Amino acid sequence: MIPFLTYPLALMALAAVPALAAIYLLRNRFRRKQVSSLVLWRFQVQSKAGGAKINRLQLPLLFFLELLALVLLVVAATGPQWKLPQSARPLIVVLDDSFSMRAVCDQVSAQARAHDYLEKLFRRQPPPSARLILAGREPRSLGATAKSWREVDELLAQWQCRAPAAAIDAAITLAAEVGKQQANILVLTDHRPADEKISSQRLECHAFGLPLDNFAIVNASRTAFGEQDRCLLEVANFSTGARATKLTVQTGSNSVQGSSILLGAHESQRLVFNIPAAAPSLRATLDADSLAEDNEVQLLPPIRKRVRVQVALANENLSALVNRTLDATGLRAAISENPELVIHETEAVAGSNAWSLAWSTVAATNAYTGPFIVDTSQPLAAGIALEGVIWAAAAATNSPGDVPVIFAGNTPLLSAREDALGRRHLTLNLNPEISTLQNTPNWPILFWNILSWRISEMPGLKESNARLGAEVNLKTTGEAVTVIQPDGGKRFFPKTGGDLALETPLPGIYSVVASATTNQFSVNVLAADKSDLSVCATGQWGKWSEDTEHRLVEASVVWIFGLLALALLTTHLYLVATAKGGS
Predict the structure, then answer these.
(1) Alpha helices of 393-539 — where are they, by DSSP H?
(2) 112 pLDDT tier (thresholds 50, 70, 90)
(3) Do 330 and 366 fall into the same domain?
(4) How many helices (H) and strands (E) does the chain have?
(5) Alpha-carbon span 44 to 37, nearest angstrom
(6) Confidence class for position 554, pLDDT limits 50, 70, 90
(7) Residue 96: which CATH number?
(8) Which of 130, 160, 238, 318 has its CA 20 to 30 A from that of 401?
């Protein structure tokens, strides 16, 4: 069977073979020298001028040794792989990385039981090679192929069981692709497989979970509610019967408050309460049980960003209308210096960081009753419904660069454009004196959308509380960012641009350092599916086929050609040293 060459370009080195032959063929071309007699010479030079006798080319043994060694080295350089018969199969282990694997019974977790089983398997009958795949929210391969239990155990240090979900099916698909349908696949989890009748002869699933009672906080939020923060906590009882637990809540440095909660089997209860907005954090805990990860949450204050708005309208009535609307949104800052949004009647822009809203009322005498065309993909149009609205505007065409958001026919009523510095410039074509728009809910919605859009483009975090595994968005201005994780680990981003999605692999408080500012956000374990331990199980599903037929597996045979070349070169060195190779 012809071997497969990994690097066939190395065959170009065979060009050295003619060079080696030339060295030996040309070495017998001596200079002609006249002598008086050939009596004392051991041989006579035969005439090469002609004749019917063919002269045999005589080459020393060293030439053939060097030629063969050169060919072997060239073949070894091509990286040949031969299909060799092999009865043992490699092993790919799929590890459930969800936090339910950390549930303990008699101080032993499902993760520890799976670890012990895997160690016994390697001690009893080690496979020729093994690879590990973590089944978290997405499957992830751990390192390269391991040849021994020591190497496997080192890779298992990355098996932390912190994920809020386990993509077992996707991990099995990845294992089948990596193993080329030839490797045995072992799944270590704490749940029954979705299809208990496993048809594949190369798949074996072992579950090490136990159906345990568990209380969990499955939902938590903290949102701005006027001058206070509104908090929501949802507690669930994943047990076979009614049970009670104690919920302890502490806000900042205030005293701890506790309340007893009695819930029936698989029953949940929501608690909604207000706390002062000045409270730096809220910490809620439940009594200890079999799974500690879902017994605690920490909620930081919601991000309250406000927009500094400067109203520069000459018309007093319009100015009063806009100020009342802005105050009603609750998103306007108390100060207007160094504005972030300027509402004016001209094209002048105040400040390098300011957005602008140009309000045009000149010749706005045409009343439009629809149909209105609204670009719902624009943030400005969220929640806008113009049925029955009278919109008075000037008949105009779109300015160069402006993108219409709302228009009637070919008349733009609201448009937006972005300049080279990334600032947004909005144009409002409206005469409120003969319009009804300002008397409908669309009016405050429009200004809410404008301020919300401006806030979304401000640097900093967009949320202060997130679920485990979710991405937290950070708006940057290009500066370096350092993220400090709850375990003290750091991730450094030297160059950032625009939005940066931060991963949240661990629960706890994260710190984000950008320039001279430091912000924090909290990540909590909130996953009801994994907190429900009543569906956990122990058992084995599927079994590897015990076939004994040999399989052809591609294996590298570079070492064979290398050893042969080394043996020939050693023989060559011996012959040269003892002058027995012929010259």
Answers:
(1) 442-456, 528-531
(2) very high
(3) yes
(4) 9, 35
(5) 11
(6) low
(7) 3.40.50.410
(8) 318
